[in-house]
Amino acid sequence: MRAVTKITFLNDQGEKFFGEGPYRLLRGVEETGSLRAAAASMEMAYTKALKLLQNAEAALGFPLTYRIAGGKDGGGSRLTPRGKEWLQTYEAYRDACVRANEQLYRQFFPD
User: Fold this and answer.
1) Domain of 51?
2) What is the DSSP string of the chain?
3) Which residue in 23, 85, 26, 16 sits closest to 55, CA to CA?
């Protein structure tokens, strides 16, 4: 038996706008330089990925990525400085919550 910690951020209307899915998507953008490639690596439609990103940006009030339309030189996406900062803060918060949950689990459910 084990307890699992899942971090989900909700907007003012109670709708989910950020969690592990959008986090992984943005890490994929950081690695590939492409929202389309990041979405494909997660077996997610590009339109769904774009909607997830737009919802997160709307809730946060700042852009997470720079998106460059394709053309002869191709397009791409990269994280904004605030997008990078958000991911780092999310990771630190998520990891702290996981550690706290592990400690509480051992406290309430000892061997």
Assistant:
1) 18-95
2) --------EE-TTS-EEESHHHHHHHHHHHHHS-HHHHHHHTT--HHHHHHHHHHHHHHHTS-SEEEE--STT--EEEE-HHHHHHHHHHHHHHHHHHHHHHHHHHHHS--
3) 16
- 87 is a domain residue: yes
Q: Is the pLDDT of residue 73 over 70?
A: no
More confident residue, 79 or 75: 79
Number of domains in the chain: 1
What pLDDT is attached to residue 53? 96
| CATH number of the domain enclosing 90 | 1.10.10.10
User: What predicted TM-score, i.e. pTM, was given to this entire model?
Assistant: 0.89
In a domain, 85, yes or no: yes
Whether 88 shows a pLDDT value over 70: the answer reads yes
